[in-house]
Amino acid sequence: MGFSTDAIHAGQIPDPTTGAVITPIYQTSTYAQDALGVNKGYEYGRTHNLTREALEKNIAALEKGKYGIAFASGLAAIQSILGLVKSGDHIIATENVYGGTYRLMELIFKDYGLEFSWVDTSNVVKIRKAVRPNTKLIYIETPTNPMLRLTDLRTVKGICKKYDLISVVDNTFMTPYFQKPLLFGIDVVLHSTTKYINGHSDVIGGIVITNNPKIHERIRYLQNAIGAVPSPFDCWLTLRATKTLAVRMKQHNENAKRIAKFLSENPKVKKVIYPGLRNHPHYSLAKRQMSGYGGMITADFGDLKSAKKVLNRVKVFTLGESLGGVESLISHPASMTHASIPKREREKLGITEGLIRFSVGIEDVEDLIADIEHALK
Amino acid sequence: MSNNVKIKSRKADIDDTKYSMDTHIIYGKDVSDKWDYSHHVTAPISSSTTFRLDSVERGAQGFTQFAHTEEFGEHAPIFIYDRLGEPNKDMLEENLAYVEKGEMAVSFSSGMAAISGVLGILTVAGDEIISHNTLYGCTISLLKNWYPRYNIKWNPIDLTIPENIFNALTEKTRVVYFETPSNPNLDIIDIAAVRKIVDQINKSRGDKNKVYIVIDNTFSTPYCQRPIEFGADFVVHSLTKGIGGFGTDMGGAVIGKKKFRDILHLIRKDFGGVLSAKNAWSILTYGLPSLALRQKQQIKTAMQIAEFLNSNSKVEFVNYPGLPNFRGYETARKQMVDFSGNFAPGALIYFVIKGNTPAESKDNGRKFMDYVADNAYTMTLAVSLGHTRTLVEHPASMTHSVVPPEELANRGIDAGGIRIAIGLENPDDLLLDLDEALKSI
Ligand SMILES: Cc1ncc(COP(=O)(O)O)c(C=O)c1O
Ligand SMILES: Cc1ncc(COP(=O)(O)O)c(C=O)c1O
Q: Does ligand 1 lie within 6 Å of residue A185's CB atom?
């Protein structure tokens, strides 16, 4: 089935008892059992929920995966991934991942005996060099947040095969509409569904998708054992949102392309980073690996003072963390999303004080351009 | 999968008649002929406007059978479209009918939609409605401002003397409508006495010009009073109030005899005042199961507050059905009883603060309420009732502002009258705030 068809139908058969076309919100914490050890396959709300199941099947289908396991947040999904390895194991991770992912790994899980190497995964040689005898997993964000650097998924797959590693991709920025890592042989895809997948800035959620039955079994076990499950209502809202994912992503992409071009032509902007621009270092990889370039743009305005001016003067763009909503957001990575990374590390990654991240929404693009233009005057 | 698949329920054959209503109110009828949600423990929230039909033939069957139970009997419904019916509303309706001792219930989007729904099926142009003088403001507005457009006449009288019906009665009278206790002043009307009179009237009338008794039971909730047991033909509710109980959802319902269900479904379908499935779910899941507990607590508190006000020197008088010196006390004792037969005088209190002149009394009432609005932690100046929070309001300028000042006395409302709807706070805290508010005058 095509993407939009799956988005609307996958996992959502009309309710068997009533024929309801839209999946009900199965707002129950427990299920009555027929007799000791006899039930209809549902025992307890943390373990099973029908609305959650519908969402899991739906997003799994979009990612071309067999199994989806939903979580209460993107970070809860990432935490479950770390349950695939053990104390003493080593993980190679993309160096400028989302700040919260960095915090979870470096500041929390390191204390539990996991080892991490932060590597520029856009460079194959650097990945290979980082592999150790105890390496178990490669964790990739592509494009990265906020520097929008790309990693070649085919190469990662090759390395993982050679060294018997699990490959994991955070696909939050692209969504399956523009990039399907499983089709490149990646083992596990995850999302902060809080972002584009839900898309309306009203739900926090995460999901893990895989084709590997063993990984599925383990993550499913962790979902129940750790317990960071999403509420039925949040699952229902997210299900409502996936139905418009295709149309939203098309518009995010269109708008971002126009704004990236506008920013590139403005002399006050020192540098524009957008995978759809020819001068992006990974432009040809982007064309090969993704079917669009997404809605995220990062631009350097030179220094904190100029950046602040833009951040404070825009009116249609809202200053705020998060991304991927229908409304445009603007943020300052150095002091907001990536503040938990030490300054020196940050600057090494290129996250300077003049850097602004745009999450381009689906408003009329003329209004968005006029807004930035006015702020730059 | 089709609707006629019968799911075998573990509990379908339990004899539930031997259990008390306090218990029933929690379980309701989630195992019925129509569906079995007992397995879910809490029913799913129905979230679909439309329902898949298995075939054109079956779809057609659904449309033909809708609201034709007289012809086709009581089948498991074929769900078609939310406005015609869906599982959450149907479940709520079964439970409401059950607690109100009616044969059926039909839910509506609000209390007003329910009231206009039941009056809509009982009257046509040229008919007349007799009601008590004192009613909820918007019900007065419906009868006074809208029904003349349809040439339906409204005849408000003092129903605390039920014999007054004979004076107001005409050939055209179709409905006797009242609230007991009435909003806001808590007049008590003897339901059984009204029944007796209406029976006498109906003796000489055929089915077509019969008089029906419709009672708004919002103030009592079925916990304190089941008017059908005393002879009401229909009970209406604003579910927004004590039954919903948390102040989160609007809703209404009409409860009565089974033969009226079809026409109520039809009027709801065509006038469109349909209860949202999500509201139905929350009333079903939170409201009804906690009704008995909430009411018990609120009645206990109300009694304490009423006694406190009754003995406060700044208070002119207190209307509360639980006070022996209240004029409706004897009748209230008879008809306001809880599921176990104990006196249950409700959670609303009406009182007037003293003044040397009516104007001064009104002014003192305003001072009291403004003090509450600014300083009371446990009381909120707001309309509505049956909430977890205690709500205080001034009927003359709020819920009953439709009544012009010169008509207030006729409607049984004092210019300075104050209505308190008791919540679930600790009664000592309410007394503290009340005491301070009264001292501030
Ligand atoms: C790429 C990426 N992954 C993961 C997360 C974490 O997701 P959540 O906030 O839903 O826990 C975020 C959130 O900003 C993100 O941008
Ligand atoms: C006695 C009574 N009946 C009916 C209503 C109307 O109900 P709703 O506001 O749900 O339409 C109210 C509302 O205050 C009321 O107090």
A: no
Interchain CB distance below 8 Å, B39 and A17: no
Residue B32: is its pLDDT beyond 80? no
CATH topology of domain A3-242: Aspartate Aminotransferase; domain 2 (3.40.640)
Q: CA angle, corner B273, sides to B267 and B279, nearest 5? A: 130
Ligand 2 centroid, distance to B136 Cα (angstroms): 7
C-alpha distances in angstroms, B352 versus B126, B184, B320? Answer: 40, 12, 12
* Residues A277-291: tens digit of each pLDDT: 999 999 999 999 999
| Distance in angstroms (rounded) separating the CA atoms of residues B378 and B383 | 15
More confident: A208 or B5 = A208
Question: CA separation (Å) from B66 to A369, B31, B71, B72, B264?
Answer: 55, 22, 10, 9, 12
CA B48 to chain A, closest CA, distance in angstroms equals 5
Is the pLDDT confidence value at B1 over 50? no
Burial of A323 (0-12, 13-18, 19+ CB in 10 A): buried
Backbone angles phi, psi at A68, to 5 degrees: -125, 140
In angstroms, the CA A105 to CA A81 distance is: 11
Domain B17-290 matching CATH 3.40.640.10: the answer reads: yes
Lowest mean pLDDT, pick from A94-98, B34-38, B375-379: B34-38
Q: pLDDT tens digits for B368-404?
A: 999 999 999 999 999 999 999 999 999 998 999 999 9
Residue A86: the pLDDT is: 97
In contact, A128 and A93? CB cutoff 8 Å? no
SS3 content of chain B, % helix, strand, coil (to 5): 40, 15, 45
Residue B52 has pLDDT above 90, yes or no: no
Give the nearest partner residue to B47 out of A24, A29, A34, using CB atoms.
A24
Please give the pLDDT value at position B33: 64
- Report percent pLDDT > 90 for chain B: 78
Residue B417 · residue B365 · CB < 8 Å: yes
CATH topology of domain A246-376: Aspartate Aminotransferase, domain 1 (3.90.1150)
Residue A111 pLDDT exceeds 60: yes
CB-based burial label for A6 (10 Å; 0-12, 13-18, 19+) = buried
Task: Give pLDDT, residue B285.
Answer: 92
Best B26, B47, B53, B54 residue to mutate vs chain A (most A CBs within 10 Å): B47
Distance of CA B406 to the CA centre of its chain: 28
Is it true that B17-290 and B291-439 share their CATH fold?
no
Neighbours of B126 (CB within 10 A): 12
CATH 3.30.160.390, applies to B291-439: no
Is beta strand A90-94 parallel, antiparallel or unpaired with respect to A296-300?
A: unpaired
- What amino acid occupies position B63? F
Q: Which residues of A touch B (CB under 8 A)?
A: 14-32, 34-35, 40, 42, 50-51, 232-233, 236
Report domain extents, chain A. 3-242, 246-376
> Tens digits of per-residue pLDDT, B243-262?
999 999 999 999 999 999 99
Would you kindly state where each structural domain of chain B is located, as residue ranges? 17-290, 291-439
Which residues of chain B neighbour A50 with C-beta distances below 8 Å? 44
Helix, strand, or coil here: B122? Answer: helix
Give the SS3 label for residue B29.
Answer: coil
Query: d(Cα A210, Cα A168) in Å, to the nearest integer?
Result: 9
